[in-house]
Amino acid sequence: MDEADGLIHLYSISLQGRPEMTLTCQYEVTKAMFNPFDPNVIIGATQTGYLLEWDVRAKKEPISGIEDRRNRSQPIQKSCLAQNGHTYPIYSLAVVGSQSAHNIVSISNDGKMCLWKPKVLADPKDHYYLEINPNMAGLSRTSTNIGNSILQKSADLSAMAASQSA
Predict the structure, then answer these.
(1) What is the pLDDT of residue 127?
(2) What is the pLDDT of residues 2-59, one digit of tens each?
(3) Among 29, 34, 90, 100, which one has the highest count of C-beta atoms within 10 angstroms of its own C-beta?
(4) Are 62 and 13 in contact, with CB atoms under 8 Å apart?
(5) How many CB atoms lie within 10 A of CB 104?
(6) Going by C-beta distance under 8 Å and a sequence separation of 6 or more, which residues neighbour residue 13?
């Protein structure tokens, strides 16, 4: 089997010398995070604009040619390059909402922000193009402040979407 371009190693305190599990995909991974509302699910974003989900409970396959035979897992779900999805690398990823109503928010480097329903990555629930406010052009701002305001905007949109579905 060809070597995967995307690897995520999960380490455990009890296995200090090697990863406990390796998650693989055929695309370079730019961002990965545990889903805060489902600790068995890891959400990843790729250089090619895909959003992926792995479940650590899924069936694992041994990696050929590696002596310690670490377990690896393929994604259980992958977004498609849908009309409303990403076509540029995704570098920002968050899960916003609550245990009962949450969304995955992704932002690619072309300024496109997509809201996804967990477990439904076929097509984003909604998408927006982010723009810099011209009134802020002369202000000194850090990427953290910009990221926080984007996540606040996505949290506001997520809350609005949850109230509409209720």
Answers:
(1) 92
(2) 567 888 888 888 888 888 888 999 899 999 999 999 999 999 999 999 999 999 888 6
(3) 90
(4) no
(5) 28
(6) none
- The number of helix segments (H) and strand segments (E) in the chain equals 1, 12
| Antiparallel, parallel or unpaired: β 71-73 and 21-25 | parallel
Give the position of tokens 């489902």. Answer: 38
> Cα(22)–Cα(70) distance, rounded to whole angstroms?
7
Tokens of 19: 């990863």
What is the spatial order of strands in the sheet that 51-55 belongs to?
29-35, 38-46, 51-55, 77-78
> pTM, whole model, 2 decimals?
0.72
What the chain holds in terms of domains, given with CATH numbers, is 6-165 (2.130.10.10)
- 8 and 45 Cβ atoms separated by less than 8 Å: no
CA distance 93 to 112: 12
The residue whose two tokens read 């989900």 is 53
As a whole number of angstroms, the distance between CA 157 and CA 97 comes to 10
Higher pLDDT, 49 or 137: 49
HSE, side-chain direction, 13 A CA sphere, residue 37: 14
